Amino acid sequence: MKVADYSPESGMVTVRLSKAGKSRHVALNDEGRTLFQGLTVGRASRELIFVRDDSDPWGISHQKRRLENASAHANIDPPATFHILCHTYGSALAMKGVPMGVIAAQLGHADTRMTERHYAHLAPSYVADTIRAALPGFGILSPSNLVRLA
Does any domain span residue 147? Predict the structure, then answer.
């Protein structure tokens, strides 16, 4: 990821090369914006944001050992991976009631089917809200002025 892939104006990063081979834009929360602002301020747009200690770019699996060591230090078992972190991100969004289509777009899913399969159960109101929005009224109840007493 290069400095130009972070947009301070929109608070988004562009993932140019994803697992699916397509680019996507990922929204950052305030904490993420602060992190990327600090990592990119005053740097040339063509520079890599993340480099190893020797200034070389990270390879596809160079982070694996560091994540395993950090997980061991934090007593996280099984160890964190980028795949697990992606699931955590999707799960957190689902539990906050974010629509499945938005989660699918953030995770780079082509449509909502996979997103729903993995995350809909974490949003208990998702199924009920979807059905209530789609079902018409049947006209079998008359309006009433009755209210439930607590």
Answer: no
**Total-model pTM:** 0.69
Query: What is the torsional sign of CA 6, 109, 120, 138?
Result: positive
User: Among residues 58, 121, 62, which one has the least CA distance to residue 87?
Assistant: 121
Q: How many structural domains does the chain have?
A: 2
Domain range for residue 71? 63-135
Least Cα distance to 127 among 90, 94, 103 occurs for 94
Contact present, 83 and 108 (Cβ < 8 Å)? no
Question: Could you state, in chain order, the average pLDDT of each consecutive group of 10 residues for the chain (150 residues)?
Answer: 96 86 89 96 95 88 89 93 90 90 91 91 78 83 84
Two structure tokens written together for 128? 């009920």
Q: Are 29 and 46 contained in the same domain?
A: yes
Q: In this structure, are 55 and 68 located in the same domain?
A: no
Q: Report the distance separating Cα 56 and Cα 140, nearest Å.
A: 69
